[in-house]
Write a structure and sequence with these properties.
heterodimer; A: about 375 residues; alpha/beta; two-stranded antiparallel sheet; about 30% helix; B: about 200 residues; Rossmann fold; seven-stranded mixed β-sheet
């Protein structure tokens, strides 16, 4: 038997659900057929009352917890919070985590084959919105026999999907957990996304998105995009304490090779990402972020946009997050208060910036676990001994 | 066991009211009111352990510093605003009183009465700032930066033209020691006021 940590869900295997019923998209186009790749942890109870949906962020995917192989170096991206005895306790909950449409980890996206042409979708893949994702997630829930989620949970772009769930399917979500998110991107957020997009699109290997036809990929552009993005995920303090002005060697070398540790780190992050992620997917995900604004249809009045929401919310922000800083979460909280909804809010003191939502931090875990215990109790699930 | 001032407030709150509890601590009052009187509403708190305890109880709690005001609550958003043992720790208690009565037509406030005879005796005979059950801190590290008396608060309400619906004082945590007679300013350790906007 392979040895995994005791609080790990252990070895997990992704599954694929194929859908033949066309999905009408916000952009006006229709996805004729599609696959959603997903993982599940825990067991769905007979009443179907213990299901949790995890929504992923910009570069996330379905592999949220556990290991794909005994020699996998790192567990899923949210393993800190999903597992036996963790905040999202797999001994009580049945957890569903999927890769969103447009992704590059198995669900239908730009790297999939376009059934009408027989070739890769590439840049022809329709731009997706948070609304489209939530629609497809609801279909996956239907397939899995889940009428109503005990909670839908997500951080960052994942949190926006949670918010959309409360608006689109209020009868199918019992609790909403929105972490390090925002009800809409700021001009600065969109600006950073545009820099990332321009980095990719101006790469000479981009070929207007048809790089696969040229057996290449815009890796330099994707690397730059990731480097810029990564800076916004960390706080100034976190970068300072991790790297300071440390040099890789003892002396300055008066050249443009890597000198400072922070340069080395960013280049490494960018390089790794650029060989494992699809550029068209990255472009599409940043657009989905930019477009999300549920208040827009209500003359900018978020409280009115939230009128259809019916479930209790937990909203969590992190003090040093400057990508989606605490005031963005408070904007959502205050709109929920105005709309007369049940909401709780915690602003967690963490040095880790936006990335804090991925990490274990004692107060974050305490807040998360307390809320999830209450979710379990309300659903009539046994309290853990 | 509920603190004696909370017990009294519990009795005063009408069935089904929408309540905002400022400095709600572990959510004891709101949880009891939700259970016994179908009260809904929010608690505001900044203490991390208090917030976690509220979440565990299913009390809606917002992490919010009272000194930053209640601007995120609309006029008449609630039926009642409650603030127990927090008034004396605020930067501007008078402005908070205005805010509370903007958000709701009525509020309930409790605070330690500095004119309690034990406090007077402590200061009068020993010559030191009183340290007691209800005022447990030393002068230099106390969060209680605006101590006042039963009479002081009554005067503030009068100056603001507010109507005092009810008032009482209590001694310690003992139930049944609540009274509004017999020299409340002298014999009351904890003051409790139920205040409303002046009727037009």
């Amino acid at each position: 038997m392979p040895e995994f940590p005791r609080d790990s869900v252990g070895l997990v295997t992704p599954e694929t659900a194929h859908f033949d019923d066309p999905l009408a998209l916000a952009c006006g186009r229709t996805l004729p057929a599609y696959d959603l790749v997903y993982e599940t942890y825990g067991t769905l109870n007979a009443e179907g009352s213990n299901a949790i949906l995890i929504c992923h962020a910009l570069s996330g995917h379905h592999h949220a917890a556990g290991y794909h192989a005994t020699d996998e170096r790192k567990p899923g991206w949210w393993d800190a919070h999903i597992g036996p005895g963790k905040s999202i306790d797999t001994e009580r909950f049945f957890v569903v985590s999927l890769n969103n449409l447009g992704g590059c980890h198995g669900s239908t996206g730009p790297t999939s084959q376009n059934p009408t042409t027989g070739h890769q979708w590439g840049p022809d893949f329709p731009l997706m919105t948070v609304e489209d994702w939530v629609h497809s997630q609801a279909r996956l829930a239907d397939r899995l026999g889940i009428a109503r989620f005990a909670a839908v949970i997500g951080g960052s772009l994942g949190g926006m999907q949670v918010l959309q769930w409360t608006l689109a399917y209020p009868e199918r979500i019992a609790n909403a957990v929105v972490i390090a998110a925002t009800p809409k991107l700021s001009a600065q957020n969109i600006a950073f996304n545009e820099v990332a997009r321009q980095a990719i699109r101006s790469d000479r290997d981009f070929f207007e998105g048809w790089y696969a036809n040229h057996d290449t990929a815009p890796r330099r552009g994707l690397k730059l995009a990731r480097m810029v993005g990564h800076i916004t995920y960390l706080s100034e303090d976190a970068m300072g304490s991790k790297f300071g002005r440390d040099l890789r060697s003892n002396d300055l070398n008066f050249g443009y090779d890597v000198e400072f540790q922070v340069e080395s780190y960013l280049r490494y992050q960018g390089d790794t990402f650029s060989t494992s992620f699809d550029a068209n997917t990255y472009l599409l995900m940043t657009k989905a972020l930019d477009y999300f604004d549920p208040a827009a249809a209500h003359h900018g009045d978020l409280a009115r946009a939230l009128a259809s929401a019916a479930c209790p919310f937990l909203v969590v922000s992190f003090t040093t997050d400057w990508r989606f800083p605490p005031p963005r979460s408070k904007e959502l909280v205050n709109a929920l208060i105005r709309a007369n909804k049940a909401v709780s809010y915690a602003n967690i003191d963490s040095p880790h910036g936006h990335d804090a939502f991925l990490m274990p931090e004692p107060r974050y875990q305490a807040v998360f676990a307390a809320f999830m215990n209450r979710v379990a109790r309300d659903q009539g699930l046994e309290d853990r001994p | 066991m509920m603190r004696a001032d909370l017990k009294l407030i519990h009795d005063w709150v009408p069935q089904g009211a929408r309540v905002l509890d400022l400095g709600c601590g572990e959510g004891t009052l709101l949880a009891a009111l939700a259970r016994d009187k179908q009260v809904t509403g929010f608690g505001l708190e900044i203490d991390p352990d208090g917030i976690t305890a509220c979440l565990a109880k299913g009390v809606n709690v917002i992490e919010q510093n009272l000194d930053e005001g209640l601007a995120n609550f609309e006029d008449d958003a609630c039926d009642l605003v409650v603030m127990t043992q927090a008034l004396q720790a605020l930067r501007r208690p008078d402005l908070m009183l205005d805010e509370m009565l903007r958000v709701a037509g009525e509020c309930i406030i409790t605070f330690p009465n500095f004119a309690y005879w034990r406090h007077r005796a402590y200061l009068g005979f020993k010559g030191y700032m009183p340290v007691s059950r209800s005022l447990p801190h030393a002068w230099y590290d106390t969060p209680n930066i605006h101590l006042s008396t039963f009479n002081d608060f009554e005067r503030l309400c009068r100056d603001k033209g507010l109507s005092i619906v009810d008032r009482a004082v209590g001694i310690g945590d003992h139930e049944g020691h609540w009274t509004s007679r017999w020299w409340p300013n002298l014999f009351g350790e904890i003051a409790i006021f139920r205040v409303a906007r002046r009727r037009a």
